[in-house]
Amino acid sequence: MKKILIVEDNELNMKLFNDILEYQNYKTEKATDGLEAYQKIKNNKFDLIILDIQLPKLDGFSLLEKLKNEKIILPPIIIASACAMDSDKLKAKKYSIDTYLTKPIDINNFIKSVKSKINN
After folding, report:
1. Is the pTM of this model over 0.90?
2. 65: how many CB neighbours lie within 10 A of its CB?
3. Tally of domains within the chain
4. CATH number where 59 lies
5. Span 34-60, mean pLDDT?
6. Disulfide engineering: 21 pairs with which of 3, 7, 15, 26, CB 3.0-4.6 Å?
7. What residues make up the domain containing 25?
8. Is the CB of residue 54 less than 8 Å from the CB of residue 29?
9. Which residues contact 75 (CB under 8 A, 6 or more apart)?
10. For the segment 60-84, what is each residue's pLDDT rounded down to a tens digit?
């Protein structure tokens, strides 16, 4: 069973992502801030990460930078953020992230994005 880390501080979004992924038969783990996500990524293997950008303690881009600097190999990442600014999308490309979904998410598009990333 594929394992997905959901990094999301909004309780409703976390529940939505988790419910969708579990319904699709994925195993999920949750982190509600960047530091918790950092620890989970360092200590576990995930097949995919769903990452919010605006997080407490350590934002999504700072988390990515920290992991990159420590040369931690990452699985595919989907950014799911309320920020739809082009600068954020360009910043995501710097980390080789090409899937940037804006919230509120389109559920069908979310599922399709997850499947395309996890089944490669």
Report:
1. yes
2. 15
3. 1
4. 3.40.50.2300
5. 97
6. 26
7. 3-118
8. no
9. 45, 46, 47, 48, 49
10. 999 999 999 999 999 999 999 988 7
